[in-house]
Specification:
single chain, alpha/beta, Rossmann fold, five-stranded parallel sheet, 10 helices, about 10% strand
Length: about 210
């Protein structure tokens, strides 16, 4: 059995699934509990990774065609709780909130969607991620305690540190937090630019 890490629980929900199976298997080997959503959970289960579906974790089903699944206090409370704050810990206990120590999220492929010829505005809007950016921003805000990963290229950095140190360094968590905010900023800028072009008539859509 591999040594346990300081990370007890990771939430994984990715559109870009490159490298995610191997990464999740490494986390599972360290006995890190994996909470996951939708297609990511299905893929990991198929590949033999033990996964807690997010609806089981929150006690609430995914609803509205998946528009609402991670917008729940047990998710965001678990991410945002200040671990050495006694009030936060008590509120976690009272509300059945478990800490989420790692958030592995990349967002619905909005830019790739609008790049396709003939894509409708309705399809573009359905590819605007809401829960993903909220989790990324929550984790990045609380990087003192939480590791946020938005880029598959960083998986090896994380597994390397966990292998050697059993934890992710604060320096790495800070770097990843800055990268996460840059990621969501670019995502929102792409959405704003597209909608401005469509609603002003500068861009025609079906």
């Amino acid at each position: 059995m591999m040594k346990q890490t300081a990370i007890e629980r990771a939430l994984i929900s990715v559109s870009d699934k490159k490298g995610i199976v191997a990464f999740a298997k490494r986390l599972a080997a360290w006995e890190i509990e994996i909470v996951s959503t939708g297609g990511t959970a299905k893929l990991l289960k198929t590949e033999g990774v033990n996964v807690v579906p997010v609806d089981s974790y929150t006690g609430h089903p995914e609803i509205m065609d998946g528009r609402v699944k991670t917008l729940h206090p047990r998710v965001h409370g678990g991410i945002l709780a200040i671990r050495d704050n006694a009030l936060h810990r008590e509120q976690m206990r009272k509300n059945g909130i478990k800490p989420i120590d790692m958030v592995v999220v990349n967002l619905y492929p909005f830019v790739q969607t609008i790049a396709r010829p003939g894509v409708s505005i309705a399809e573009a809007i359905e590819n605007i991620d809401i829960g993903g950016p909220a989790m990324v921003r929550s984790a990045a805000k609380n990087h003192t305690f939480v590791t946020v990963i938005v880029d598959p290229a960083d998986y090896s950095v994380i597994t390397g540190e966990l292998e050697i140190k059993g934890e992710v360094s604060i320096e790495t968590r800070r770097m990843l937090a800055a990268k996460a905010f840059a990621h969501t900023a670019a995502y929102d800028a792409a959405i704003a630019g597209y909608l401005s072009d469509v609603f002003s008539g500068r861009k025609n859509t079906p």
